[in-house]
Write a structure and sequence with these properties.
This protein has 294 residues and is α+β, with helices and mostly antiparallel strands. The chain has eleven helices and eight strands. Helix 1 packs parallel to helix 7 and helix 4 packs across helix 7.
Length: 294
């Protein structure tokens, strides 16, 4: 991961200044400790994690911890741009999963922590949290998992079928194929097109990939129309490097709420284990709940 951006550097500077104080405000220190203790109560219990597949459990624990850490970090004045950005998105999209909103908690939490960016350096709550925790110290394996989640993104995958409990997923633009568990429980039919955040094995070479978010299954259009969409969209980002352009598009969109807006307007129906979408991001009339169709 690259060096911290301006906000991360400011947080590190402030942290070092606090650590260098000769006089410590014990009331402030005690308040911070009590807040941390309260936040830790929201972390999934060992009993809950034990019920999950080991690969999913590791990432679930890491996400819980980064959520706790970020709650503390976002109390700092330097983080106010993120509080404003995420707060506005929460008000706009009411993320909670259907029927209230097609933006699931698993999807929106990842977007808010790892994708919602500020500035030319594309800093996120995740990168700032990593900058701070790298300074104060964190178990190396936990820090590695948080960095992996920060580097992750959504992607469009064609379902090739299932092998035992793992979906065989091939990403449309990169062509990369992986075996992933699907904690949401959707098995699906060969040929389905999924929009989902797939995380690599938390322990390289040992465990499968993890489809970390509830799959969004695209009812229409089909793969050919989506490839045409990428062909006309990716050159706007980087005409010389298709793969890099795709990765940027899937993580950050063409604007901050690009994928939030797409999911919100493309919603068709849902089941507990999946959500159905229809339409293309750049064809307004193709999305059921676009302004054109409202």
């Amino acid at each position: 991961m690259s060096q911290p951006g301006p906000i991360g550097q400011k947080l590190i500077k402030n942290l070092r200044a606090f650590k260098g104080r000769k006089v410590v405000d014990f009331k402030q220190l005690d308040a911070g400790r009590k807040m941390a203790e309260e936040l830790q109560k929201t972390v999934a219990s060992k009993e809950t994690l034990a019920k999950l597949h080991p690969a999913h459990a590791l990432y679930a624990y890491a996400q819980n911890q980064v959520a706790v850490l970020s709650e503390q970090v976002t109390q700092l004045p330097a983080m106010s741009p993120f509080v404003d950005l995420v707060g506005k998105a929460e008000d706009e999209y009411l993320p909670s999963g259907p029927p209230m909103s097609p933006l699931t908690t698993s999807y929106f939490t990842c977007w808010a922590l790892f994708d919602a960016c500020i500035g030319e350096n594309r800093e996120t709550i995740g990168t700032c949290t990593i900058a701070v925790t790298s300074e104060i110290g964190l178990p190396p394996d936990l820090l590695r998992l948080i960095k992996t989640m920060q580097e992750s993104r959504m992607g469009f995958y064609l379902l090739q079928g299932f092998e035992e409990d793992c979906a065989i997923l091939r990403e449309m633009v990169t062509g990369i194929e992986c075996r992933a568990i699907v904690p949401a429980g959707h098995r699906g039919e060969k040929g389905e097109l999924w929009l989902v955040r797939v995380l690599p094995p938390p322990m390289p070479g040992v465990l499968p990939h993890v489809a970390f978010t509830t799959p969004y299954v695209i009812l229409q259009p089909g793969p050919e129309e989506w490839l045409a969409y990428f062909a006309r969209t990716l050159p706007k980002i980087d005409p010389a490097n298709t793969r890099r352009a795709y990765e940027i598009l899937m993580k950050y969109g063409l604007e901050r709420n690009y994928w939030n807006e797409y999911i919100f307007e493309a919603y068709v129906n849902h089941r507990t284990e999946l959500i159905f979408l229809a339409g293309l991001p750049d064809v307004e009339e193709s999305r059921p709940h676009s302004r054109v169709n409202s």
